[in-house]
Amino acid sequence: MSTGTVSRGHTRGTVTRIAARLVLILLATAAAFWTTWVRLLHDTWTGSSIGFVFVLPVLAIFSAIGITLRRGPELPIHDRQTDLIVGVIGLGLSACTLGLLTPRYRYLYEMLHLDLLAAWLFVISACVLLFGLRPTTRYWPCWLLLLAAFPPPYRAMRVIVGGGSVSAGATILLLAAFAAAIAVGRSRTRAWVGAGLAFAVGCAVLAGLRIWFPTARVLVYQAVPSVIAVLVVAMVMYVDWRRRRGTSLRPLDRELDPLTAPQAWAAAATVAAAAILIMIIPIPPDYDRGFPVMPGLVVAQPHTVPPGWNQLSERQFPWAQHYFGQGTSMTRQLLRAQEPNPLWDNESRRRRLVIDTVRAKDQYAIDRYPEFVLYNMPQPRISPPTRIDLGHGITARLNTVLDDRRLLSWTWLTWNWSGTDGAERISLIAADNHESDAAFPPPQPSMLGIFENFLHQFLRGKAVVLDSESADVDADTEHKDRDMLLSVARAIVAGTERS
Question: For the whole model, what pTM was predicted?
Fold first, then answer.
């Protein structure tokens, strides 16, 4: 048998083993986090920008191919014992992230998606077990790119850029440029050129989408320009490099190195067992975020001021659409009672409250940012909820909120409903301070402020910051201003029903 025949047979066998292990990792990851993928698909279908998570693996594949094509010969230094130790520890960290850390911050689940961080750890650990630590770390730029699936940085950049579909596509073009730099980066110059070309090509495709397909889904704006940009730039620069060298366009013109782990049955069984164990770990259940249909509710129209109250001011927050999407709005109404009520204030002062209303075409847009994250309250403590029936099928949530930094407290009544052409989240807020200059928590238009808010909530833990949708429902505690807020809320519900 000739040497060429043996070499081709060795290459085919190596490629087959690599493909089989990659398929195992793919299936194990899909099974272990199947609930996460189903949720993400649902959110993507309903218009969320979270669909970029499905684009990143495609970009990472292009990057990995580029690294593979420019690999040189390496010394056969392997330590399977280290591979097994690191891989098993990584799988354990993945399980702990999903089973311990994610439920602890369940109120921030939609914003943080810590289960994606767990999936990232799972894939890396499985690769270490099946391919070895050294081969896995060789692709560290690809792992760094995949880490961008952790949503907060992407969403923050999207808000800074503008918040719409075009902004979602432009933001992921930055990641596409990074992917192109990895794929063609045989030198720093080629990496910068590849990144710049990819961004330029992506912007051109994005502009074409905006002109000819303005109503396309957010996922289209995210996937099409970025994938086309990286694919075109990688192919052009690869062909140019081959021609400069005077070699063929054949991708693998050398013999493949043998696998670090020629036999990995034990590692494969470990990955499969870990996938089964992680698969049974529940992630936070959906909140009771139902938006019951309210007869007579027209979302485009402002609510009438309840009887016995005067509206002192009304303010629009145009930056809200950057967070919730195009076509959404957020308004604040400041009300004051027409007459003093001794049941609401011992000194018979006329009480004030604010009504914050978030309007959107669908409820999923409203749910993308938790309510209390959007306010300038760096150190809040939130009581467990009290559920209250407002009538007409509407259930409200009552919380007491304390700001430890400013030593202020508020009573907070919130409910959701839907009607003609959209849905609303309404929040009634009463200050514990009954003076005429009492401060109300202002909505926060700064992404840096929102990041500070959720960072405080993330670091301070459940012992201090309680989930506003906690399962520990508070049915007995007396909330201040409960009766006042209920009277206003029921008047709003009744007035909407009559209209």
Answer: 0.87
- Specify the DSSP class assigned to residue 255: P
Is the C-alpha dihedral spanning 400, 404, 405, 407 positive or negative?
Answer: positive
Whole-number Å distance between alpha carbons of 172 and 257: 34
Taking only the tens of pLDDT, the chain with its 499 residues reads: 444 444 555 566 677 888 889 999 999 999 999 999 998 998 888 778 899 999 999 999 999 999 988 776 666 667 788 889 999 999 999 999 999 888 877 777 888 899 999 999 999 999 999 998 988 999 999 999 999 999 988 988 888 887 788 999 999 999 999 999 999 988 899 999 999 999 999 999 999 999 999 989 999 999 999 999 999 999 998 887 667 666 666 666 656 666 766 677 889 999 999 999 999 998 877 655 668 888 878 777 778 899 999 999 999 998 888 888 777 899 999 999 999 999 898 888 999 999 999 998 877 778 777 787 788 776 677 888 888 999 888 889 999 888 877 788 899 999 999 887 889 999 999 999 888 888 999 887 766 666 776 676 667 665 555 566 665 545 556 788 999 999 999 999 887 765 5
- CA nearest to 101, candidates 157, 150, 52: 150
- For the residues of 79-146, what is the DSSP string, one character each? -HHHHHHHHHHHHHHHHHIIIIIHHHTGGGHHHH-HHHHHHHHHHHHHHHHHH-HHHHHTTHHHHHHH
Q: Cα separation of 175 and 225, whole Å?
A: 12
Assigned token pair, 119: 């999936």
**Which of 361, 366, 359 is CA-nearest to residue 290?**
366
Q: Is 5 helix (H, G, I), strand (E, B) or coil?
A: helix
Token pair of 321 as six digits: 């659409």
